Sequence to fold (359 residues):
Amino acid sequence: MCDVVVIGGGVIGLSIAFELSLHNVSVRILEQGQFGQEASWAGAGMLPPGNPAWAATPEARLRAASHVLWPTWASRLRELTGIDSGYVRCGGLTVHSSSAESEFSQEKARWIAEGIALESLSGISLRERFPALNPSIQEACFLPELGQVRNPRLIKALQAACVQRGVELFSGHPVMSIEHNGQRVHSVRTPAGEFTAGQFVIASGAWSGELARQVGMNLDIEPVRGQMVLLDAQPLPFSCVIEDGLRYMVPRPDGRILVGSTEERVGFDKRNTVDGVAGLLKLAQQLVPSLSQAKLERSWSGLRPHRPGGLPFIGPSGIYDNVFVAAGHFRAGLQLSPITATLMREMLLGQPVSLPLAR
Ligand SMILES: Cc1cc2nc3c(=O)[nH]c(=O)nc-3n(C[C@H](O)[C@H](O)[C@H](O)COP(=O)(O)OP(=O)(O)OC[C@H]3O[C@@H](n4cnc5c(N)ncnc54)[C@H](O)[C@@H]3O)c2cc1C
Fold:
């Protein structure tokens, strides 16, 4: 028996296990497929900035706390494993385009209200800084503190760090049922047998709803498909993230550009569609016309775990004393992974919780 069993080996489950292992907790992670190959692999890796001093909503407080944790989190993983997660503050440009008029003003006002560093750019100053941008875009704002992480590398680093710290990783181990006795869960059942532990964490992304139901919780988590397209655009025509409403382009240092993403409620269907891919390619050309000559490399999609209201559930199950949930991170699971791990460690170890719980 170990101290904690984590169900789900995405960025959230791996981060929680790693954080617990740093505090000498014995952890096993049960993953139904391969580690980190679902939403955590599919994501774009954008890490929006935050400001703990002015953050006024639960979402802003979580984002701000994670923003503060990221540099140490990334360097600790690199020192321990030698794997560079690609964490960098590359900056982000939010453009004022006709397709997202109102979003631009609202988003800019939100950043200003939060006291986030921001540069307003228009006309010639915008052209000079971003010559590849479509000249029809006349206004934008630049967030110098927006970061990115290369999520497939982050997953590799987290897996390696977990192994080094003695976490036991079980791939191909779907949890089918959660077995309880009175107020406590004593084990979880997989096709390979039962796993007992003192505490359990449900961190199963878009699949968490069914497991949570087994411990009497209704989390209303549903999968929201996000399609993504990868371009090879060497040499890169821009080096920061470009956002247009909910869509964006993320340049990687190797000359690739990720273009994302759609929001589709189609259940657990991970197909790419003609409509989805065509829309993303159109966006890329509209924002940076020279990308019409870029090589189209591949496309994929992932299932974001969505809860009504868009906030993750991070906390005790409420019904069973020793069951906790960290799920429903929707569009923000990569950015919120360090703070989620910190909060879960505090709760599991009975330490003072550093932020009000996100529920
Ligand atoms: C296209 C796209 C773009 C995105 N861009 C960003 C971004 O730029 N920035 C950002 O912060 N976030 C982004 N996200 C969101 C982010 O990827 C997710 O919020 C995050 O990956 C959720 O992590 P998770 O560990 O909860 O879920 P997952 O990565 O889905 O992991 C859950 C794991 O649990 C396993 N599992 C499920 N059921 C069981 C079971 N019964 N037994 C055992 N294992 C089980 C699954 O196999 C899976 O591996 C994006 C997502 C998508 C799809």
User: Anything to note?
Assistant: The chain is about 30% helix and 25% strand. Residues 58-81 form the longest helix (24 residues).
